[in-house]
Amino acid sequence: MNELEERESIIKRDLDYTSEEISKTSRYIGFGLIGIFIALIDSTTKSTLFIFANYKFLLLISAVFGCLTVISDFLQYIAGNICSEKANKRKEKLYKKTWFCYRVRNFLFWLKLSFALTGAALLIFVIIKFVFES
């Protein structure tokens, strides 16, 4: 392996690692947003009743973004599976970046990241409003 191939290999490993970590973290955020919403619905403490009564819509939207995060993560796996099967059938065993499934997979990666960040930002907004209003 020459120096250029070695650098490419290191970059590829780093890209694979960071992409996987971003996906995992997005998934955790998505499930967390859903879990927080369910916990607030189920709780009967004075403070959680206050939070839910005053910020129900924002919390609901945050939970919806959590659901969208998880759904887009799942759909990304489906698109990735389709691409992998397609690449495996090719003689050179490579993906083509022009394939629809490849573009959809990349789009869903960024979409789930956007959903997770938006849902988390809404939840942070609710927490800050609660702290300063109570």
Helices and strands, with pairings:
Elements: H1 3-42, H2 46-89, H3 100-133
Helix pairs in contact: 1-2, 1-3, 2-3
Model description:
- This protein has 134 residues and is mostly helical.
- It has one domain.
- It is 88% helix and 0% strand.
- It contains three helices and no strands.
- Helix 1 runs antiparallel to helix 2.
- The protein is elongated and about 65 Å long.
- It starts with a helix and ends with a helix.
Give a short synopsis of this structure.
With 134 residues, this protein is mainly alpha-helical. It contains three helices and no strands.
Q: How many structural units, i.e. domains? A: 1
List SSEs in N-to-C order: HHH
Beta-strand content estimate: under 5%
Q: Main beta sheet: strand number and arrangement? A: none
Keywords:
single chain; 134 residues
